[in-house]
Amino acid sequence: xxxxxxxTQATRxxxxxxxxxxxxxxxxTCWSSASVVANEKNFSAVALEAKNPVIVDFHATxxxxxxxLGPVLSKAVAEHPNVTLVQVDTDDNQDLxxxxxxxxxxxxxAFYNGQEVNRFMGMISSGAIAKFVQEHAENKE
Length: 141
Hints:
By secondary structure, the protein is an alpha/beta fold.
């Protein structure tokens, strides 16, 4: 019985941490100084006209994988000061999501010189996210 009680307490504490992580993405959409919240009005200026590499996180507040991906992506981008993280809520910016053919969430799109150079959909490992950001940070073309 004590083992079950200990397991239940540990699970309850784990869930508290998980709930905090899940709300982080929707509650705080700007995690670092190189992070911008974009909408249909400013997307061109912050993503397409940028002189530096840009990674766009298309997400929604109701999307559980998006809430997990957000902090991991933010941490990876924070390690590369020349990369800007742009976040787009697809519920609020449906025309923008349609323009870039966002069919599943989360979708992360890398832009350089106004052109899409790479993308991934869904939750991937933190190592794969770090590699994606690093490759894009080193993009010279």
